[in-house]
Amino acid sequence: MNILFIGDVFSLPGREVIEKNIDSIIKSYDISFVIANGENISHGKGINKKHYEFLKNNKVNVITSGNHIFKQKETLEYIKTTNDLLRPANMHSDLPGLGTIKLSINNKSIRVTNLMGRVFMDLVDNPYVVFEKILENDDSDIHIVDFHAEASAEKAAFAYNYDGKISALLGTHTHVQTADEQILPLGTAFITDVGMTGPINSIIGVNPSEVINKEKTGLPTKFIPSTNDGKLCGVVLSFDDITNKVLRIKRLQVT
Question: What are the catalytic residues (predicted)?
């Protein structure tokens, strides 16, 4: 079985590059299951219902998120009606939405869990404590974690702590794809950051001129999503159909 994970989808260029390439990627890599981080898909912050439906119509099985999940007010309501749009499980327990889901595909049970880091991030609960509770009753064949965090060391520490207990830990949030994809010693696939599916000539999705102005002057500056051509960043995870062990993790960049 091959699983595709698409990194942070950013605004219109991210949507366009998915729509353009998803069918060919699924065919080329014989993909059975698709996960995408959609927390920036709506104008660079949040995910409205229209864009949730866009991802579902483009063959995405599960949508993960991060600190921007509730930037669009309507998300607070429609997330209650779906179980395949995840918010970080270690956000406050009173918030709507699920942080983990288990689905059955091709006679395999696949769990997807969404967690958020705490270093340089908004306040959330301890991800270790929350994740231990998820693992207590987990009997899935394959378990993939989207760890949405700023600090590379925090992502690596979490991955090594659960090496051999989960199938993959895939970092998101920084919008820059890292070149450290690997299988850890006990069998868990890991990459520090899957990268951004969004505009190529931009600074993590927004127009460079606005970021440069803020860096030079220190003045408050409105960041506007770039409309330049997009690039899809992702990884393909390949699994042994008998043992359910991950065999390979391959980085993708598609324009």
Answer: 68 (proton donor)
Q: Which of 43, 68, 92, 143 is catalytic?
A: 68
Under DSSP, is residue 163 helix (H, G, I), strand (E, B) or coil?
A: strand
Per-residue pLDDT, 56: 98
Domains of the chain: 2-254 (3.60.21.10)
Q: What is the pLDDT of residues 165-190, one digit of tens each?
A: 999 999 999 999 999 999 999 999 99
Positive or negative CA dihedral for 254, 84, 192, 186?
negative
Angle between helices 152-161 and 127-136 (to 10 degrees): 30
Beta strands in the chain (DSSP E): 2-6, 31-37, 62-64, 100-105, 108-116, 142-148, 168-172, 182-183, 189-191, 198-199, 230-239, 246-254
- Residue 18 near residue 8, CB atoms below 8 Å: no
User: Are residues 197 and 230 in contact, defined by beta-carbon separation less than 8 angstroms?
Assistant: yes
Check the annotation: does 210 bind a ligand: no
Q: Is 128 helix (H, G, I), strand (E, B) or coil?
A: helix
- CA atoms of 189 and 15, how far apart (whole Å): 27
Sign of the CA dihedral with 186 first, then 232, 58, and 54 last: positive
Q: Measured in Å, how far apart are the chain's first and last C-alpha atoms?
A: 25
Q: What is the pTM of this model?
A: 0.97
Asked if residue 144 lies in contact with residue 111, where contact means CB atoms within 8 angstroms, the answer is yes
68 catalytic per annotation: yes
CA-closest candidate to residue 108, choices 32, 34, 57: 32
The answer to whether 175 is annotated as binding is: yes
pLDDT tens digits, 61-86:
999 999 999 999 999 999 999 999 99
